[in-house]
Write a structure and sequence with these properties.
This protein is an alpha/beta fold. The chain folds into two domains: 2-150 and 256-279, 3-Layer(aba) Sandwich (Rossmann fold), CATH 3.40.50; 153-254, no CATH class. It is 42% helix and 8% strand. Strands 4-3-5-6 form a four-stranded parallel β-sheet, sandwiched between helices. Strand 1 and strand 2 (6-7) form a beta hairpin. Helix 2 (50-66) crosses helix 9 (249-270). It is globular. The two termini are 29 Å apart.
C-alpha cells in the first residue's frame, strides 16, 4: 500500500505500520490531512452525520491527489446549539480541543511536520483555530487551515446566497452537497410539505441583503443579534430561508471539485517551502 513512498491507500487506519514507515521515509515532505465534522440534526432530510460524512469524502479526495495520509479522528464535534433537536451529539470544547491536540501530538511524535486541519462544521471553527495555535508552539509543527477558493464564479454565487438567504445549514447549498457525496442517505421525500422555518425578526432579516451600502456594518450587527441556539433561529432545524428542493447537484459537483483542487494545489505549493528553522528538531 506504499511503495517507495507512493501510497495506494490514504486512510491512516488502512495502512500497515511498514507502509506508513515507507511513506514517511520516501515522501520528501509528508503531509497529514485531519478532518473535523459533526453529528447533529440537519433538518428533516439530511443525515445526522452530514458534516462528518462530507469531510471524510473531501479529505480522502485531496489526499489521493497529493500522496498525503488522511485521518478523521472523531465523528461528533462541538454542537451544543443543536442539542434541543434529537439525534445531535456534542463534545465539550475541552474534549474536541484535546482530541485535536492529541492527534497532532501523536503525528508530530512520528516526525510529521505538515498537518492540514479541514473543518466542515462552523461550530468547530474557533476550537480548530485554537488547536492550530497551540500545536504550532507546543509541538513545533506547521498547521494549515486553508479555505477556498473564493474568487470563482461558483463560489461567489454560493456566498451571495449564504449572505442573502442565510443558506448555511440544511438549505439548498448543503442539500446539493449531500446529494453529490452521499445521495443514498438523503430523504428528499420528507420535504414534500416544506415550509420556511426561520424565526429571525424581519428587522434583522433586512440586514441579510448584501446589496445594501452598509452591508459590512449591518451584517455584523446581524451576527451579534443572532440567537445562540438552533431553536432561536429556526423551528425546523434548517438555517436558510430558501427551499432545499431547489438544490443544484451540478453546482455542488463544480464547487467541491474547485475546493478539492484548491486544497491539492495548496498542499503541493506548501511542500516546495523548506521547513522553517523554528519547526526543525
Amino acid at each position: 500500500m506504499s511503495e517507495n513512498g507512493k501510497l495506494s491507500k490514504f486512510w491512516i487506519q488502512e495502512l500497515t505500520r511498514p507502509a506508513f514507515e515507507d511513506w514517511l521515509e520516501n515522501e520528501a515532505e509528508p503531509v497529514v490531512i485531519v478532518g473535523i465534522g459533526a453529528i447533529e440534526q440537519h433538518g428533516t432530510h439530511l443525515p445526522l452525520g452530514t458534516d462528518s460524512l462530507g469531510v471524510e469524502k473531501f479529505i480522502h479526495d485531496a489526499a489521493s491527489r497529493t500522496n498525503s495520509v488522511c485521518i478523521h479522528p472523531c465523528w461528533p464535534g462541538y454542537s451544543p446549539h443543536h442539542m434541543s433537536f434529537k439525534g445531535s451529539i456534542t463534545f465539550s470544547e475541552d474534549t474536541l480541543l484535546a482530541i485535536l491536540l492529541d492527534t497532532i501530538e501523536s503525528l508530530a511524535e512520528h516526525g510529521i511536520k505538515r498537518i492540514v486541519l479541514i473543518n466542515f462544521h462552523g461550530g468547530n471553527s474557533n476550537i480548530m483555530k485554537l488547536a492550530a495555535q497551540i500545536a504550532k508552539r507546543e509541538f513545533r509543527v506547521m498547521i494549515a487551515t486553508p479555505e477556498g477558493p473564493r474568487n470563482t464564479e461558483t463560489s461567489k454565487k454560493i456566498l451571495e446566497r449564504m449572505q442573502r438567504y442565510l443558506e448555511v445549514h440544511s438549505g439548498p447549498r448543503e442539500t446539493a452537497f449531500a446529494l453529490h457525496y452521499f445521495p443514498e442517505l438523503v430523504e428528499m421525500w420528507r420535504l414534500d410539505d416544506w415550509e420556511n422555518g426561520v424565526v429571525i425578526s424581519e428587522q434583522l432579516q433586512e440586514f441579510m441583503n448584501p446589496d445594501r451600502e452598509d452591508y459590512e456594518l449591518v451584517s455584523q450587527v446581524f451576527s451579534a443579534c443572532l440567537g445562540p441556539n438552533t431553536e432561536d433561529i429556526t423551528t425546523t432545524g434548517q438555517y436558510a430561508t430558501t427551499d432545499p428542493r431547489k438544490a443544484d447537484v451540478k453546482e455542488a459537483e463544480v464547487s467541491m471539485e474547485e475546493a478539492t483542487q484548491f486544497l491539492a494545489d495548496f498542499i503541493n505549493v506548501w511542500k516546495t517551502i523548506p521547513v522553517p528553522l523554528c519547526y526543525r528538531d
